[in-house]
Structure formats: C-alpha cells, structure tokens
Amino acid sequence: MKNILIIGSTGQIGTELALTLRKIYPTVIAGYIPAAPPKGELLESGPSEIVDITNPDQIAEVVRRHKVDTIFNLAALLSAVAEAKPQLAWKIGLGGLFNVLEVAREEGCAVFTPSSIGSFGPETPHDKTPQDTIQRPKTMYGVTKVSGELLSDYYHKRFGVDTRSVRFPGLISNVAPPGGGTTDYAVDIYYAAVREGHFHCPLKPGTYMDMMYMPDALRACIELMEADPTKLIHRNSFNVTAMSFDPEEIANSIRAVIPSFTMEYELDPLRQGIADSWPNSLDDSCARAEWGWQPKYDLPSMTADMIETIRRRG
Ligand code: AKB
C-alpha cells in the first residue's frame, strides 16, 4: 500500500483509520461527501477529496489523479438505519461497491470493504459461528453485506482484483460516535456511565454479540491488507472477533470501575429483533491461521481504557 483512498472517511471507523494510516503510509486521501466534511485533525493532517460512492466517474478521477493503489470502502448505512432506508442502503452498500470494484478493475487497485456479523441470519449456527456457514440475513444491511462478500469474491476470481474483507463485530470507540447500529449500546453505555451513572439499555439480558475495541479493528484492516496473498484461502470475508458479552456482563465490567453504576432495560424491538438474528459468538480461527489475526483487548481492558479516556476528556 502506498497511495490510499478512504471512501467514507468521516464515519465511525473512517476517521480513526485515516489518522492511523497517515502515520504509516505516504498518501492517505480522506474521501467524503459534502454533507459530512472532514474536520479537525482529519482535515489538517492530509489531503481530502469529495468522493461520492454513487458517482463512479468521481471515484475514477480521484483514483487516477492521486495514483491510488488501495481503496478502503467504508461507505454504508448501519443496520438499524438501513431498515429505515432500505433503498438508500442498497444504493450505497451494493451499488457503491459495484462502482468501487469497477474502478479497481480498470485502475488496478486493491479493495477492502468491511462485512459484518450482520451478514448472518437466524438460520446460522449462533454459537462459535463457523467461517463458512449459512448466510440468510433478514435485514437490508445483512443482504447488502452478504451480497457484497459474493461480489468482491467474484471480482477477485473473475478479474484478479485484490479484494479482502473482515466481518466486523460491534466496534467500540472513544473517538467517533457510531450511528444507527444494533451494537451501538455497547458504546453509549460507557458515556452514560461516566456522565450520568445510569443507562437505559435497549437490549435484553442474555443478548450476546461479538464486539471489538477500535484499536484492534484498525489493526485488523491493516494486517489483512498487508497479508501475504499466497496464504489467503478466504478473502471475502473473514470472521474476526475479540470478545462476546451481553448487557449484564458489560454493566458488571463497568461496575468494577464505577461501583455506583446502575442500568435499567428499555427495549427497542427493532434492535432486539436484529440482535436476536445475529451470532452469539464467532469462530475466527481462519483469520488467525491465514493472516495471524490476534486481538489485544478483552472486556476488562477495554472497559478500563474507555472509562479512563472519557473521564480525561470530560
Ligand atoms: C451494526 O450494529 O449495525 C454494526 C455492525 C455489527 O455491523 N455495528
């Protein structure tokens, strides 16, 4: 990787990925849409360009002008928002991916497009979900993710495009807030615990989902894109995880640091339905074997770091 374009750089993972990549690689272009322009450090630390994923000519022009060799395609609507706007979710998630893959085919770029635990559905084995298994999601988010995995594999096999991807679990960050995801409660709970000492949880006890702290997620993107291609049996997409917990377990981990923290349940049926259709825990042994995936943070170390950082920033 030398000249990198991030599409969707102002979203939750995009900003942190751009800032991390800029410490390692010579050129990292922050692609954005006018409705969500880059600000602060993202704006000041490197080049940015308007790149609307629904506009193939705009993607191609930026790729050619900057001699881009790698595209991180992070444009997507998260699961709960995608249920409210399914047509737009398809246009960005699948139509956008098609545009990116076509540019990559013509210009010889590698492409990273994250998939998600949302690519699984109710018929998928829920515990230690295997790498290769049933994927019949019932949400538009999941439909775009599993279709995106297939399309990316197709472009690799048919045209030799270097497509790679991981199925991200819920990502927990103390930098950019998430927006419209089913796993977002696991971010919101830390801010509520530090600021109000109390949290209204939208999911019921016993709702287990895979999660990952953002520093691990950023490493996963970079390590997969740097991996030796001859070792990759899979490409789109690898199961990766760092931990699995339910609302009671994350609340207890917070109580270990803030003993007075309290939580009550106020269920959101949309998010609960989505969470119930997703795995309880993933088997990520293929990622570990094929490119050495290894998370660094578990629930206690993530909780300690989240609370310490939120307190420090005020
Ligand atoms: C969501 O909850 O929609 C995302 C995801 C797991 O892909 N965080």
UniProtKB/TrEMBL annotation:
- What Pfam family is a match for this entry? Epimerase
Q: Which domain of life is it from?
A: Bacteria
Gene Ontology terms for molecular function: L-threonine 3-dehydrogenase activity
GO BP annotations of the record are: L-threonine catabolic process
Entries under InterPro entries matching the protein: Epimerase_deHydtase, NAD(P)-bd_dom_sf, NAD(P)_epim/dehydratase
Q: List, for all copies, the residue spans of the domain called NAD-dependent epimerase/dehydratase.
A: 4-227
- Protein family: Belongs to the NAD(P)-dependent epimerase/dehydratase family.
Name of the molecule in the record? NAD-binding protein
Q: Which organism is it from?
A: Porphyromonas catoniae ATCC 51270
